[in-house]
Amino acid sequence: MSSVLFDAPGPKARTRYRVFGVVTALVIIAIVGFVVLRFAQSGQFDAKKWQLFTFPLVQQTIIQSVGATLSAFATAAVLSLVLGVFLAFGRLSDRKWISLPCYGFTELFRAIPLLILMMIFYYGLPPLGVQGITPFTAVVAGLVLYNGSVLAEVFRAGIESLPRGQSEAGYAIGLPKSAVMTNILLPQAVRSMLPVIISQLVVILKDTALGFIVTYNEILFQAKYFGSQAQYGSPIIPSAIIAGVLYVGMCLILAGIAKWLEGRMRRNIKVVKVTKSEIVAVEG
Amino acid sequence: MSPQISAESDHSVNTLLNNSDLFITGFRNTLILFFISGFFALILGTVVAALRVSPIPAMRAAATLYINVVRNTPLTLVLFFFALGYPKLGLVEIDFMTAATIGLSLYTATYVAEAVRSGINTVPVGQAEAARAIGLPFTQTLTLVILPQAFRAVIPPMFSVFIALLKNTTVAAGFSVFEAGAIRSNLSERGEPAMAGLLWVALVFVLLVFILSFVQRKLEKKWKVAR
User: Fold this and answer.
1) What ipTM goes with this model?
2) Is B56 among the domain residues?
3) Rounded to a whole number, what is the distance in Å from the CA of B114 to chain A's nearest CA?
4) Cα separation of A91 and A109, whole Å?
């Protein structure tokens, strides 16, 4: 491992690093050991506390709650990507009466806490006579408004970071602005902003857990329900562990997909570069 | 901001004025949560970022593991653990406010760490090389040369982290902490309309975020790195 921040270690430094390394490992083992020991001492690993999760019906419910989390995530992800693209185009519009409202919209919904947004939909709208608000619609609507605004800024930053020549070339061959945006600028912006977009998708996935507070039947909601079953010893920590594993697992899978996509796209760019140099070689 | 307020402005203003005690206590607790967790998250995040670039592999691995696990866990679950799970362990008893502070600090620290690390990467290589050339060891290279410059560069991302923290404090409302997110349930106990209360809460958050962005622009201007 070489870094600009420190010199390559000599014999003395190597021993020192080794000592520090061992000390760090010991401290971490001590912390983890203490937590595990505490769990064990307070009976969190007792078979009684985990017995609940061996029932097929309970496992089915957990799988259903994962499905609920994923469906809220998928719906919100697709809709906020669409909203984000529209808002980004709106902000980049030449017409003030389009760009100003879009600017206000993104700034407003990025400033309101997501939970408050969900509450506005879930608790605020029904008394005003709005029908058909379920926890699902409240969660998705909140997620879409917030993440759509965030993604709009991401798309805009991506489009603005492209070299001017891209749009100029588009106009030069006679494309209208809409075609320049959708056919030339957006694909490149998405490609360069892909890491940010994916991390925002991970945020959406994590934020579905807020649905727990507006009684959406997702993983954490079920975890709390199972955790409060007194006849099975209130296994709140076992259910928190299960929920944690599920969330970390899903987020890591999403991050893995992101890495794979990024690698693929980078390969494609390389191909483009090779052909470019070939063209130069041919012309030269 | 909404047709609701303009159409029933008398009524909505009454919701705010008649229940100002709820709003004041709620937002006071929100700000307490924000400043205390922000303070600890800043310290812990900087330490974790330093560990992540340290020459010792065990430290790097520990910091990376912490960041990866916590960043992939929803804040709601972190608070769930500290507010509902922790009391079952029979350790020192903490109230919900402290539990929320611990959860928010641990969660936000990972984002601070990532921001600081990206800042460290923006400092020109020559700075670290010069520090090493005059014989500074790693800790001094980092604390005396790199970090002071890195912090200047990371003001915008750092403020996004803190704005996110401010908004995230509302999640604590789900775990028996009385702060801005819990104003609605208290209002509905008093028979007040939910929408008016929620819109006022949203408006105050918009103002708070606006103030934070203003401070950010000031600091950015003041500490601009001349390169």
Assistant:
1) 0.82
2) yes
3) 13
4) 15
